[in-house]
Amino acid sequence: MTVTGHRDELELAIEAFKQWLDTFVRLLPKPVKEGLRRYWAETGVVLDDFVYERFDAIDLLADEDAPTLEALERAIEQAQVQLTGKKSEVVRLKSSIGKLDPSERAGFAKDVQKLEKTIGYTIDNLQKYFRKEAESARTERERIDVTLPGRRPRRGHLHPITMLRERIEDIFVSLGYAIEDGREIETDFYNFDALNIPQNHPARASQDTFYTSDGFALRSQTSTVQIHAMQRRGAPVRMIAPGRVFRRDTPDPTHNPMFFQVEGLCVDRGISMAHLKGTVAEFLRRMFGAQTVTRFRPSYFPFTEPSAEFDFSCFKCNGKGCRICKNSGWIELGGSGMVHPNVLRAAGVDPEVYSGFAFGLGIDRMAALMYGLDDIRLLFENDVRFLEQFD
Which has the closest alpha carbon to 195: 334, 340, 356, 359? Predict the structure, then answer.
């Protein structure tokens, strides 16, 4: 190809750059055009006259129709690849310089280099401006006004059952008791056998206890923790075991298939029923006040002998009779008794040397009494409107 043919291609490349410039300028809203002019003036950028002519001659889009700064920045990056990339017309023209006659080569090469420099310089300055403006816009969008009042985090508080549990733990720790915890899935030995519950006892039936497919059971009382503690620590031992227990009860205002219990155990030489009565009475006085009176009623539990249920004088009416105590003056709270010798033997403790007492009560039922709840299910429904009243 002669130099004339190559110069025709050079003119086509120049025209392609001008057409892209025309298309790009049409995308610019008036504020952006003015910003570009100021940027060029402030930075001393001098572009070819035909670049300025297009910025002055072409009608601009209305501001509301204009693309974003990020979109304009991407358009410039695409143009850089299209006009100066490996497959661009400029690169093709540069590769054809060596094929020209030496007498014509220098002038043509100078014109190609001028075009390449013009395109590169124009695009480079456009990139710098739009990159700076896009960064400024992002900074403004993400700017934090430190003078504005902050959003105060919502303050939480303990669940009423947790508050009551911690209060019970504090009382017994002050009496010299340890806090023990244990697993919630147990074998028949710990859930029944070690507690002297016979094989034909209804508590073992699947109608009353949750069983897994592997034959394990969800603990139906925290007495299981007492067995583990005696096996691990031996005697003497003083401990309470608060935690969740599970029974197949139909949910109603006074029952739930999952509820919270706390059971206490004291095993040592010479422990008698008097120690049990004194411990329970002191606990209830610290919980409900020095005026609280305690009474014990004979009862039966497989794991204690003798056994008793204990009540305390109503904290609302002081034993005179009210709605909370059903006009009896007394509130039923839990069961207790002297630990059965068979339970001590199952835990590896010699009943001929040691004796002990145990007691247990429901934490959620106590919470319902103390807070005047007529339905214990409220404690497990996670209704914030209910729970925030205990803050």
Answer: 340
- What integer is the mean pLDDT of 145-169? 87
Question: To 5 degrees, how large is the angle CA 374–CA 371–CA 224?
Answer: 85
Task: Say how far apart CA 75 and CA 251 lie, in whole Å.
Answer: 66
Please give the pLDDT value at position 79: 75
* Residue 228 to residue 220: CA distance in whole angstroms: 15
Whether CATH 1.10.1200.10 fits 160-390: no
pLDDT at 66 over 70: no
Tokens representing 370? 């103390």
- Residue 192 contacts residue 301 (beta carbons within 8 Å): no
DSSP 12: H
pLDDT, position 57: 60
Task: Domain ranges for the chain, please list them.
Answer: 3-141, 160-390
Q: State residue 340's pLDDT score.
A: 95
What is the DSSP secondary-structure string of 331-376?
A: EEEEEEEEEPHHHHHHTT--TTT-EEEEEEEEHHHHHHHHHT-S-G
Reduce the DSSP state of residue 296 to 3 states and report it. strand
Phi, psi of 327 (to 5 degrees): 60, 20
What average pLDDT does this structure show over 306-330? Answer: 86
